[in-house]
Automatic annotation (TrEMBL):
Annotated spans, Disordered: 1-49
UniProt GO MF annotations: magnesium ion binding; phosphatase activity
Listed Gene3D superfamilies: 3.30.1240.10, HAD superfamily/HAD-like
One Pfam family named in its UniProt record: Hydrolase_3
Name assigned to this protein: Uncharacterized protein
GO cellular component entries: cytosol
UniProt feature, compositional bias: Low complexity: 1-18
Naturally occurring in which organism (per UniProt): Rhodotorula graminis (strain WP1)
Domain of life: Eukaryota
Length: 368
């Protein structure tokens, strides 16, 4: 069984008249923009010739973080930062919300850099939804006995297991003599890792003193399918969900946790129709969110499933793909490409300033 506490329980006196539950929000169908912009000009199209939404059609932006907003180095791409900050400036009424497999502490620098401190967040695939004061509005967590049994199964097969509480995660098994240091891999996504292979952490889980929102199982990609099958066969009657944000990581969450549910929650919270929501992502955990939104955009670096279901595709996370796509909608005339090189005149001026012309690339004949 999974633990669940609804946001509705945090409201005194129950739901207000006319307030719908987030779970009542209908699933969207793909929404087509009109043929022209309000001024009668031709519609904007992406590189594949698909019609882009008008800026006025976008009332909410939801995005994954790792592999989407973040580069492979776990850094925010400047193009993404600039595009979102621009939208915040000209359209401050648009909620821009991270919906991610990460824990909230691992998103704090991103939230600050994007200027979305006043926005809510969906973390650990939507297992926890925070309001803009960083208080939990809704949470769903795994049964402690199931968590223990999965950990035992991974230990038996010499695989690493990381158990995610709200703001840190416990390493309870570690693969020996593996091809990678999976502890370091885990720290790359959520740095607050504690070695809990010894001690009473699991007893706290069993007693409900520690809630586990996600089980994180990194391993060599080629063995992932057999371990998914093993887990599903070992626990045929237990309610849980397996998802993947990356090909080499199995993630287990409570049944009912999905980014599409987070989308429904935020749509109801802000009174936004799903067909006016644009979503960005790269993993299989983004597929549900893509299906629920009017506009879905897969990253070029994404897994096959999200690419197959997304309405659009943008360039990779390392190319600032989210920023590039948003710029096509909100400032289509904006061009900000990196300069391939400096002019010869500029190089000469630099040489003069440095007083080292004899050793400069220009003097060495490396520039025409």
């Amino acid at each position: 069984m999974s633990g669940f506490r609804s946001a509705a329980s945090s409201f005194s006196g129950g739901p207000r008249p006319g307030m719908n539950s987030p779970w009542d929000t209908p699933v969207a169908t793909p929404f087509e923009s009109p043929a022209t912009t309000p001024g009668g000009s031709p519609v904007l199209r992406d590189s594949d010739g698909k019609r882009l939404p008008k800026a006025a059609d976008i009332h909410m932006i939801l995005s994954d973080v790792d592999g989407t907003l973040f580069t492979d180095a776990h850094e925010l791409h400047p193009r993404v930062r600039d595009a979102i900050q621009y939208i915040r400036k000209i359209r401050p009424e648009i909620p821009i919300i991270p919906v991610t497999g990460k824990q909230l502490p691992s998103c704090q620098s991103l939230i600050k850099d994007l200027g979305i401190e006043d926005m809510p967040a969906g973390c650990m695939h939507g297992a926890i939804i925070y309001d803009n004061q960083r208080k939990i509005e809704q949470e769903m967590y795994l049964d402690g006995h199931f968590v223990r049994d999965v950990s035992r199964l991974m230990r038996k097969h010499n695989k690493s297991t990381f158990l995610y509480v709200e703001d840190w995660n416990a390493m309870v098994t570690k693969e020996e003599n593996g091809t990678k240091d999976w502890e370091q891999v885990a720290r790359g996504f959520d740095p607050a890792v504690k070695d809990e292979r010894e001690g009473d952490f699991m007893q706290k889980v069993l007693k409900g003193k520690e809630r586990i929102y996600k089980v994180f199982l990194p391993m060599d990609e080629e063995v992932v399918p057999q371990f998914i099958e093993l887990i599903e066969k070992t626990f045929p009657t237990v309610p849980f969900k397996i998802t993947r944000a990356l090909p080499y990581i199995i993630e287990i969450v409570a049944e009912g946790v999905d980014k599409s549910a987070a989308l429904a929650f935020f749509a109801a919270k802000f009174n936004v129709r799903p067909e006016n929501i644009i979503t960005f992502g790269d993993g299989e955990n983004d597929v549900g969110m893509f299906g629920a939104a009017g506009y879905s955009v897969a990253m070029a670096n994404g897994m096959p499933k999200p690419k197959a279901v997304a309405k659009y595709q943008t360039t990779s996370n390392d190319d600032g793909g989210v920023g590039r796509f948003l710029d096509m909608i909100f400032r289509p005339e904006y061009v900000k490409e990196p300069d391939a090189g400096l002019s010869v005149d500029h190089l000469k001026a630099l040489d003069a300033q440095l007083g080292a012309a004899s050793a400069s690339p220009l003097a060495a004949g490396l520039y025409p």
